[in-house]
């Protein structure tokens, strides 16, 4: 349902845009134009009511991967966007006036962005600053990006944020302590343009690689495969995340140096170079078996990357940040993408999000892989991460000008 709704939204936007352009060409008074806009809006309200009922009574068995709430919210977003657009040409200066003033008076105003509906939009410096100000109340990368060596000792027990089975804490070993930084590798760092790159199949054949590499700072999620996909995803990586479970999921024979799995893992780590490898080891005790593997490989091969290890409370902090900003995170914990936007918002003036599209089809009806670098088409369930809801949130931030959500091929 979600993918078809998005396609319908595009078609409806196209038709209403044609109507508006026709009205603009007519030699009519402002009052008459506003009356015509009101008529169109009332029609759209009736349409929304129909969509709401349709999505409320739809049989979820036929659309198990897209929550009904996303369909209703998609309709809401379209109505809101249309109201803003029509208010401008009909003569109402109040609509979005604060945002427009911010755009005109700030250096971010020079960047044109292309939302999903195909219209042009600008970064809104007020929204960028508001999100940064809100996030910094709870999270600061100078303080919260990583554990610090000075605050740990060998033999100390670090409690996991989520416990499974009998394992409740991680033992600080001498080798583990060697990898802990003295301070945050992003302390006092700030960047003008940043790319946060997810791994959705929407990136395949996107030709976004050059655009991604042009950003001042590039964040990648969960040690993705880059080799062979540079045209679509680029090759630059300033910060790469790696959940410990990635080793078990994608490199089953990591402990055998003669296997392809071991070579692939080393190549993925080599792509990080001397940049940042962000390892959330304290999220869950499920990954405990892989933590020692990560430590062993990094030390044995004398890899030079910086290795921040976030504290156990980081998921609770990020979830609280998004909720208090008015967004919903309904699942067990926020996704890596939600974490990385939260981080980027504190150090970047312009944030571009690529590869965040959790649906099995794009707006043209083309089938998508779950990851651009594998053939799996099964989308993740909503128990661990509420991906469609997070996508809706990113799209709202995009429409407000706080970030750019790229879901179309780059040109």
UniProtKB/TrEMBL annotation:
InterPro entries assigned = Glyco_trans_29 (IPR001675), Glycosyltr_29_Sialyltrsf (IPR050943), GT29-like_sf (IPR038578), Sialyl_trans (IPR012163)
Cystine crosslinks: 194-348
Where is the chain membrane-spanning?
31-51
Task: Please give the GO cellular component terms listed in this UniProt entry.
Answer: Golgi membrane
Compartments, record wording: Golgi apparatus membrane
How does the protein associate with the membrane?
A: Single-pass type II membrane protein
Q: What is this protein called?
A: CMP-N-acetylneuraminate-poly-alpha-2, 8-sialyltransferase-like
